[in-house]
Amino acid sequence: MKRTATVIWKGSGKDGTGTLTTQSTAVKNAQYSYKSRFENGVGTNPEELIAAAHAGCFAMKLSFVLQALGITPESLDVQGEITLDGTITESHLILKAKIPGITEEQFKAAAEDAKLNCPVSKVLNTKITLDASLV
């Protein structure tokens, strides 16, 4: 399986602008620029997309880990946070989970398994941290 995205960039690094479109077109012609990446300008940026990808991958992997235990989560609310300091220095995941019938020990083990083994975690060459709580 392969997934693709297309970027069109016009102009210089600081003054140029670009658009991003994913294969599925769930993201279509999303604007990005120096200002949306390094300041608070309108548009998306690569780090925001990595944060979304990591949070989404982690949530799905955790649901599979729980399924293998015979447990179905009511909800997995995951926030991804990428730190950029010249390079990406950390991906931090914040999980708030509603999982009926799970013990704290099972929850922590399942969350750690998902953090270590989701495909996006495996491709990121950075520190990955997780704050996980049952709500």
Average of per-residue pLDDT values: 97
Count of all domains = 2
| Count of individual helical segments | 4
Task: Give the strand content.
Answer: 25-35%
Let me know the number of strands. 6
Please compute the radius of gyration using only Cα atoms.
Answer: 17 Å
SSE sequence, one letter per element: EEEHHEEHHE
Shape: elongated
Helix content: 25-40%
Spatial gap, N to C terminus: 36 Å
Q: In CATH, what is the class of the largest domain?
A: Alpha Beta
Report the biggest beta sheet as strand number plus sense, adding barrel if it closes: 3 strands, antiparallel
Known CATH architecture of the largest domain? 2-Layer Sandwich
Task: Give the spatial strand order of the biggest sheet.
Answer: 1-2-3
CATH topology of the largest domain: GMP Synthetase, Chain A, domain 3
Structural class: alpha+beta
Ranges where pLDDT stays below 50 over 5 or more residues in a row are none
What is the CATH superfamily label of the largest domain? K homology (KH) domain
Per-chain topology:
Blueprint (H helix, E strand, L loop, with lengths): L4 E6 L6 E6 L7 E4 H5 L7 H23 L6 E10 L3 E11 L5 H14 L1 H5 L3 E8 L1
Parallel strand pairs: 5-6
Antiparallel strand pairs: 1-2, 2-3, 4-5
